[in-house]
Protein backbone atom coordinates (compact mmCIF):
# COMPACT_ATOMS: atom_id res chain seq x y z
CA UNK A 1 0.00 0.00 0.00
CA UNK A 2 2.87 2.37 0.81
CA UNK A 3 4.07 2.25 -2.78
CA UNK A 4 0.77 3.69 -3.95
CA UNK A 5 1.34 7.09 -2.37
CA UNK A 6 5.01 7.15 -3.25
CA UNK A 7 4.26 6.35 -6.89
CA UNK A 8 1.31 8.72 -7.12
CA UNK A 9 3.50 11.67 -6.15
CA UNK A 10 6.39 10.45 -8.27
CA UNK A 11 4.03 10.24 -11.24
CA UNK A 12 2.68 13.74 -10.48
CA UNK A 13 -0.86 12.43 -10.08
CA UNK A 14 -2.28 15.23 -7.98
CA UNK A 15 -5.78 13.86 -7.39
CA UNK A 16 -4.59 10.37 -6.51
CA UNK A 17 -1.93 11.72 -4.14
CA UNK A 18 -4.40 13.87 -2.20
CA UNK A 19 -6.97 11.06 -2.01
CA UNK A 20 -4.36 8.61 -0.75
CA UNK A 21 -3.13 11.05 1.90
CA UNK A 22 -6.67 11.39 3.21
CA UNK A 23 -7.18 7.63 3.05
CA UNK A 24 -3.98 6.92 4.96
CA UNK A 25 -4.88 9.39 7.68
CA UNK A 26 -8.39 7.96 8.00
CA UNK A 27 -6.82 4.54 8.58
CA UNK A 28 -4.66 5.88 11.39
CA UNK A 29 -1.37 6.23 9.54
CA UNK A 30 0.72 8.85 11.33
CA UNK A 31 1.30 12.20 9.60
CA UNK A 32 5.06 11.63 9.86
CA UNK A 33 4.73 8.34 8.00
CA UNK A 34 2.78 10.13 5.28
CA UNK A 35 5.52 12.76 5.07
CA UNK A 36 8.13 10.02 4.78
CA UNK A 37 6.28 8.43 1.88
CA UNK A 38 5.86 11.77 0.14
CA UNK A 39 9.55 12.43 0.66
CA UNK A 40 10.38 9.16 -1.06
CA UNK A 41 8.14 10.16 -3.94
CA UNK A 42 9.91 13.51 -4.14
CA UNK A 43 13.26 11.70 -4.29
CA UNK A 44 12.00 9.80 -7.34
CA UNK A 45 10.97 13.10 -8.93
CA UNK A 46 14.45 14.44 -8.28
CA UNK A 47 16.10 11.39 -9.81
CA UNK A 48 13.90 11.62 -12.89
CA UNK A 49 14.83 15.27 -13.22
CA UNK A 50 18.53 14.48 -12.96
CA UNK A 51 18.14 11.71 -15.53
CA UNK A 52 16.42 14.03 -17.98
CA UNK A 53 13.05 12.28 -17.68
CA UNK A 54 11.46 15.28 -15.95
CA UNK A 55 11.79 19.01 -16.59
CA UNK A 56 11.63 22.05 -14.34
CA UNK A 57 7.92 22.29 -15.00
CA UNK A 58 7.55 18.80 -13.51
CA UNK A 59 9.48 19.84 -10.41
CA UNK A 60 7.19 22.83 -10.03
CA UNK A 61 4.19 20.53 -10.36
CA UNK A 62 5.53 18.27 -7.61
CA UNK A 63 5.98 21.35 -5.40
CA UNK A 64 2.35 22.31 -5.91
CA UNK A 65 1.20 18.80 -5.02
CA UNK A 66 3.32 18.80 -1.90
CA UNK A 67 1.93 22.16 -0.83
CA UNK A 68 -1.58 20.70 -0.99
CA UNK A 69 -0.45 17.72 1.06
CA UNK A 70 1.05 20.05 3.66
CA UNK A 71 -2.21 21.97 3.95
CA UNK A 72 -3.76 18.70 5.10
CA UNK A 73 -0.92 17.59 7.35
CA UNK A 74 0.21 20.86 8.97
CA UNK A 75 -2.75 21.13 11.40
CA UNK A 76 -1.97 17.62 12.61
CA UNK A 77 1.37 18.75 14.01
CA UNK A 78 0.41 19.38 17.59
CA UNK A 79 1.56 22.58 19.23
CA UNK A 80 2.75 20.67 22.33
CA UNK A 81 5.72 18.99 20.64
CA UNK A 82 8.54 19.65 23.14
CA UNK A 83 11.32 21.87 21.87
CA UNK A 84 14.76 20.31 21.69
CA UNK A 85 16.28 23.76 22.13
CA UNK A 86 17.93 24.16 18.74
CA UNK A 87 17.08 26.78 16.14
CA UNK A 88 17.77 26.15 12.47
CA UNK A 89 17.54 28.75 9.72
CA UNK A 90 16.27 27.54 6.35
CA UNK A 91 15.97 29.29 3.02
CA UNK A 92 16.26 28.88 -0.74
CA UNK A 93 19.11 30.93 -2.15
CA UNK A 94 18.70 34.12 -4.18
CA UNK A 95 17.67 33.51 -7.78
CA UNK A 96 15.94 30.21 -6.97
CA UNK A 97 12.23 29.99 -6.19
CA UNK A 98 11.97 26.24 -5.63
CA UNK A 99 11.01 25.16 -2.13
CA UNK A 100 10.05 21.50 -2.46
CA UNK A 101 12.93 20.01 -0.48
CA UNK A 102 13.02 22.94 1.94
CA UNK A 103 9.38 22.51 2.83
CA UNK A 104 9.77 18.81 3.55
CA UNK A 105 12.80 19.29 5.77
CA UNK A 106 11.00 22.17 7.53
CA UNK A 107 8.13 19.83 8.34
CA UNK A 108 10.43 17.04 9.52
CA UNK A 109 12.51 19.35 11.71
CA UNK A 110 9.49 21.04 13.24
CA UNK A 111 7.94 17.66 14.00
CA UNK A 112 11.14 16.68 15.83
CA UNK A 113 11.18 19.69 18.13
CA UNK A 114 13.48 22.03 16.22
CA UNK A 115 12.61 25.71 16.05
CA UNK A 116 12.70 26.56 12.35
CA UNK A 117 13.22 30.06 11.00
CA UNK A 118 12.09 29.73 7.38
CA UNK A 119 13.22 32.69 5.28
CA UNK A 120 11.36 31.46 2.19
CA UNK A 121 12.68 31.47 -1.36
CA UNK A 122 14.90 33.79 -3.40
CA UNK A 123 16.68 34.83 -0.21
CA UNK A 124 19.51 37.33 -0.58
CA UNK A 125 22.87 36.40 1.01
CA UNK A 126 22.64 39.48 3.21
CA UNK A 127 19.31 38.25 4.60
CA UNK A 128 20.84 34.92 5.63
CA UNK A 129 23.63 36.76 7.45
CA UNK A 130 21.16 39.08 9.16
CA UNK A 131 19.11 36.08 10.33
CA UNK A 132 22.20 34.35 11.76
CA UNK A 133 23.15 37.53 13.59
CA UNK A 134 19.68 38.12 14.99
CA UNK A 135 18.73 34.57 15.99
CA UNK A 136 22.18 33.24 16.97
CA UNK A 137 21.05 29.98 15.36
CA UNK A 138 23.93 27.46 15.26
CA UNK A 139 22.78 25.84 12.02
CA UNK A 140 21.98 27.35 8.63
CA UNK A 141 20.43 25.26 5.86
CA UNK A 142 20.53 26.64 2.32
CA UNK A 143 18.54 25.04 -0.49
CA UNK A 144 19.63 25.38 -4.11
CA UNK A 145 18.18 23.70 -7.15
CA UNK A 146 19.56 25.78 -9.98
CA UNK A 147 23.29 25.33 -10.55
CA UNK A 148 23.86 28.95 -11.57
CA UNK A 149 22.73 30.03 -8.08
CA UNK A 150 25.60 28.21 -6.35
CA UNK A 151 27.76 31.36 -6.45
CA UNK A 152 25.22 33.08 -4.21
CA UNK A 153 25.76 30.36 -1.60
CA UNK A 154 29.46 31.20 -1.65
CA UNK A 155 28.55 34.84 -1.08
CA UNK A 156 26.63 33.86 2.06
CA UNK A 157 29.73 32.14 3.44
CA UNK A 158 31.97 35.05 2.46
CA UNK A 159 29.66 37.57 4.13
CA UNK A 160 29.52 35.49 7.30
CA UNK A 161 33.30 35.50 7.40
CA UNK A 162 33.42 39.25 6.85
CA UNK A 163 30.88 39.73 9.64
CA UNK A 164 32.81 37.56 12.08
CA UNK A 165 29.92 35.09 12.32
CA UNK A 166 31.31 32.17 10.32
CA UNK A 167 32.66 30.27 13.31
CA UNK A 168 29.31 30.54 15.10
CA UNK A 169 27.25 28.59 12.58
CA UNK A 170 27.39 25.28 10.73
CA UNK A 171 26.22 25.61 7.14
CA UNK A 172 24.49 22.87 5.19
CA UNK A 173 23.72 23.22 1.49
CA UNK A 174 21.16 20.88 -0.05
CA UNK A 175 19.75 20.37 -3.51
CA UNK A 176 20.13 18.44 -6.71
CA UNK A 177 23.30 20.13 -8.05
CA UNK A 178 25.38 19.95 -4.86
CA UNK A 179 28.45 17.74 -4.56
CA UNK A 180 31.95 17.77 -3.08
CA UNK A 181 33.07 20.35 -5.66
CA UNK A 182 30.24 22.69 -4.62
CA UNK A 183 31.13 22.17 -0.95
CA UNK A 184 34.76 23.09 -1.55
CA UNK A 185 33.89 26.07 -3.75
CA UNK A 186 31.33 27.58 -1.40
CA UNK A 187 33.07 26.76 1.87
CA UNK A 188 30.04 25.21 3.57
CA UNK A 189 30.41 22.54 6.25
CA UNK A 190 28.09 19.89 4.85
CA UNK A 191 26.29 19.10 1.62
CA UNK A 192 23.68 16.58 0.55
CA UNK A 193 21.05 16.13 -2.13
CA UNK A 194 19.17 13.66 0.04
CA UNK A 195 16.49 15.02 2.36
CA UNK A 196 16.84 12.14 4.81
CA UNK A 197 20.59 12.70 5.03
CA UNK A 198 20.03 16.41 5.64
CA UNK A 199 17.70 15.59 8.51
CA UNK A 200 20.30 13.19 9.93
CA UNK A 201 22.96 15.91 9.78
CA UNK A 202 20.69 18.27 11.72
CA UNK A 203 20.07 15.61 14.35
CA UNK A 204 23.81 14.98 14.63
CA UNK A 205 24.55 18.69 15.06
CA UNK A 206 21.87 18.92 17.75
CA UNK A 207 23.76 16.33 19.77
CA UNK A 208 27.19 17.86 19.13
CA UNK A 209 26.67 21.62 19.31
CA UNK A 210 26.03 23.70 22.43
CA UNK A 211 22.55 25.17 22.48
CA UNK A 212 22.76 28.98 22.60
CA UNK A 213 20.37 31.02 24.67
CA UNK A 214 17.40 32.14 22.63
CA UNK A 215 17.41 35.74 21.43
CA UNK A 216 14.08 37.54 21.44
Automatic annotation (TrEMBL):
Q: Tell me if Manganese is a UniProt keyword of this record.
A: no
What's an example Gene Ontology biological process for this entry?
Answer: tetrahydrofolate metabolic process
PROSITE patterns for the chain: B12_BINDING (PS51332), B12_BINDING_NTER (PS51337)
Domain B12-binding N-terminal: start-end pairs? 1-85
Question: What one GO molecular function would you report for this record?
Answer: methionine synthase activity
What are the alphabetically sorted keywords of the record? Cobalt, Metal-binding, Methyltransferase, Transferase
**Gene Ontology terms, cellular component aspect?**
cytosol
> So which domain of life are we looking at?
Bacteria
Q: Which residues form the B12-binding domain?
A: 85-212
UniProt keyword Transferase present: yes
List the Pfam families hit by this protein, alphabetically: B12-binding, B12-binding_2
Protein name, as recorded: Methyltransferase corrinoid protein
Q: Which organism is it from?
A: Desulfitobacterium hafniense (Desulfitobacterium frappieri)
Amino acid sequence: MDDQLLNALADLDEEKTINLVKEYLSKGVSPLKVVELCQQGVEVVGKRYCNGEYYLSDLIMSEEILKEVMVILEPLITSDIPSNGMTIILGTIEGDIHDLGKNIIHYMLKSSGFKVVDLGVDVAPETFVQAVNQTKAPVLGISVLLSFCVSAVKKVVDLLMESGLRDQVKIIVGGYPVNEIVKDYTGVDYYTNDITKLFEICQMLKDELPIPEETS
